[in-house]
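Incident log, support desk, overnight shift.

02:14 A customer reports that sequence design results differ from what the structure should imply. Their input is reproduced verbatim below. On-call engineer (initials T.W.) acknowledged and began investigating.
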């Protein structure tokens, strides 16, 4: 059986920070220079995404929040995620 290249021997790890708290956690991991991890920030708040260090950003819930935050409202967050479930699944 042939050996696979080094990149094929490792799992693909993606960390998706959701909302303000999740984005803060992703920023801390990026600043800690974690290697071998793909970082993604997902938020309803357009301004918060601009502040994220994550190289990949997903803005969700434009119809629900009009680009503003969900204000910690879990129902609004759920509706936003459902609105853009295809974007999330593609990540």
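02:41 Re-run completed on a clean worker. Output:
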């Amino acid at each position: 059986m042939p050996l696979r290249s080094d990149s094929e021997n490792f799992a693909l790890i993606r960390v998706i920070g959701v909302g303000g708290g999740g984005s803060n956690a992703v920023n801390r991991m990026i600043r800690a220079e974690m290697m071998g991890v793909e970082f993604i920030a997902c938020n309803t708040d357009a301004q918060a995404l601009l502040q994220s260090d994550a190289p990949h950003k997903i803005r969700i819930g434009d119809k629900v929040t009009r680009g503003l935050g969900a204000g910690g409202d879990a129902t609004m967050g759920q509706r936003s995620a459902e609105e853009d479930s295809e974007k999330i699944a593609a990540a």
